[in-house]
Amino acid sequence: MVATMSQTPQPHVLSALVASFGSFDAAHGFAVNVFVVITLAALGTAFLTGDRRVVRAAAAAGIVLCLADWVLIEDLGFLGGLGTDPNSMIPVILLFTAGYLALSPVPAPAGAAARDAETAGPAAAVGRDEAAGWRGRLRPRRLRESLALTSARSVTAAGAVALIALGAAPMAAASANRNADPVIAQAISGESAALDQPAPAFRLTDQDNRAVTLASLRGKVVLLTFLDPVCVSDCPLIAQEFRAAGQLLGPDARQVELVAIVINPLYYSVTYTRAFDQQENLADVPDWLFLTGSPAQLEKIWRAYGVTGQVAPAGAMVAHSDIAFVIDRSGNMRQELDADPGPGTASTKSSFAVLLAGAARHTLRKP
Amino acid sequence: MLAAAAAAACMAGCGSAASQPAPARPPAVPQSLDTSAATAGGTWAAIVMGGSSAQNNAFGQLFVRPSGTSTWKLVTPPGVATNGGLVLAGPDGRSLLAGFRPGVDLRFSPLTTTSDDGTHWSAASLIQAGLADVPDALAAAPGSSTLLALAQGGIAEESANSGAAWTQLATARSLAASAAGRRCSPVTLTAISFTPDGTPLAAGTCARPGMAGIFTRSGGTWQAAGPVLPASLAGQATEVLRLTSTPTGNAALLIAGTGNTASLLTAWTAGSGTSWTLSAPLHLRTGTVRSSGFGTGGAVWVILGGGRAAAISSTGGTWRSLPALPAGTATLAFGPAGSLDALTVTHGVKLTDWRLAAGSSAWAKTQTITVPIEYGSSG
Fold first, then answer.
1. Which residue among A264, A268, A312 sits closest to B374, beta carbon to beta carbon?
2. CB-CB under 8 Å, B104 with A233
3. What's the pTM value of the predicted model, to 2 decimals?
4. CA spacing 20 to 30 A to B74: which of A26, A308, B68, B273?
């Protein structure tokens, strides 16, 4: 995932750095984790000593660790972070700083300087502003005093809040944006696989009891997946992603067919495909087909497409593949995508929909 | 001044007859889906096992002890996740109709049937609105393809063709607005069943005190059919917790009152009549009924708060307190020769059967089943 983050839009230097660390972490992940754990334990022990010099060193080391994490693992959150806490190291830096400052008394100003400042008066201060030239005019006394009076604690805290907001904003925008970056989906399910082979034929029944064959869909790009009509988790999400992909295609949707085939060996009748469509508001989606057939027909098609649907014991739902195929207008499979919907948040759903629509559009443009 | 006082007294007296204060809405007693049903053909038990329902790791399980055997076997119907629990209808010998309650992102209720003690199951039809979260949300008319369902939202529905199509029969509001519902003023529907001759029954919580809200449907209209409570409970609002059909009539479990004043009663009726026999009340110290179930002939067991349990063996019988239940008891089940089984759940996956023989005062462990729960399978 670290390596995948490096693919989000960001300066090349940073992208290369994150990608390198990602490769290192992939190869030596255990060692990285052990290092971090030992380092955090040592920092905690150092703070417990209460010794100012030890705590100062520990705070500095902690800040370096947090900065390294923020750059290498969180990918400078507001640039490329994908997690739910893209800038969490910033408040941790604040914690280390606060811990050190709490153990360090604020030094009192030197005696003569303090007395002079108290006795000089406002007129003298204005004079000093004028003497400072354009800098003095640009920084009026009150502003300078405010800045001078602002403590390191306040500045650090304000900076942390700003960075958190800066990093959270893209994630919030993604959740409201139907066109979330497909890299989120790829981070969950990996890259798609390119294919170049004829799609296995089928003859099944749609939710309106009409016979549908793959051949009858020639001339359209087919986005094909396998759904369990009584599924409790993945399939409703995948269905919504397909629906959203159809909407994103706009005018191109007329050249694309959204097709699902039942993958439950026990609950497969048209009654159930219709019930699923009604549950997911798919009944009015044009070019949506939820196909089924006899158990023998379905099992043959599952084998042909390399998918499985296994009945599980003790009240578990049927365990099935989460997969999607892109089939071109001539009936050839061009792409295989892992359709695992992940956490099913608004941003991941929109990301998958963008990925599917992009794959369909790409295949439409191919000769 | 005297005239004004007389006018005020008259108005007060006249007003009291014309405008009764709105009856307080009795709190619904949360019901567990853990239950059992004993028939001449065997005993079925539905129990929620596994882990946290918030993490989608609680799964409804189904067990059966066929008649003539002494051991339970796990027969949870396959193919649908049971995160929402199971509702049973019409155990009739070796046959059973079961409904999967909505759970996680499944919002309708598939139905399934077995005719060989759960060895094999066939997908049946479904209820698009989803079954309500009560143990008596599904009923099958004896010897016919007519079904009743209590759907989410408190809507009673009927199907004349084994669930292929459903029509709305009633809601608490429609019953309250009818002549039949005026005396009770039902606020929620809590159970449905059939009389032995196939007449639909619906039951619920009455806002007005003094009677149990049970209604029969005849000739296209609803009739009030519930028992009137004895004088000692006449001021208590009543909820029908359970309702079932027996070979000879119907049985109902009622709770009258709330909190420290709540009492449980069992009511039985013979044939398709509306004349009920009421048990003596069982005073609930805590007002909590954790689970309940029926046996043959209208026998009833209840698990109460604080580890207490009680049972009535037959029509017109009296409540008897049971010995302290084994830890983790989820449900009881009537057994042969007057015995009673306590089914406990430990560690989420282990079901243990403890038997109380007739006349005994101690539970004896007889069987353990480890259920292969697939944690995390529901996402």
1. A312
2. yes
3. 0.76
4. A308
